[in-house]
Amino acid sequence: MRLSGPDDVTVRSCPGGPDLVRGATLVVDDDGVQHEVTRPVVAICRCDRSSRMPWCDSTHKAVRPR
């Protein structure tokens, strides 16, 4: 996953949850698909089970960790 945006893009990992990304304008997933970021903060899925990849849909709360 790659992130694009101004120099002040920050990523904070939430224990057992998503990565919170602040300041990005573009997320490029592992397949090279570009996802425009239109919000100041977005949650990126880390459990790989979201139905809205790359965005977190809170599935991690309902499934056991791998």
Automatic annotation (TrEMBL):
UniProt keyword annotation of Oxidoreductase present: no
Keyword line: 2Fe-2S, Iron, Iron-sulfur, Metal-binding
InterPro entries named in the record: FeS-contain_CDGSH-typ, MitoNEET_CISD
Pfam families, per database record: zf-CDGSH
GO cellular component terms, semicolon-separated: cytoplasm
GO molecular function: 2 iron, 2 sulfur cluster binding; metal ion binding
Iron-binding zinc finger CDGSH type domain ranges (all copies): 22-66
Protein name: Iron-binding CDGSH zinc finger protein
Species this protein is from: Nocardioides aurantiacus
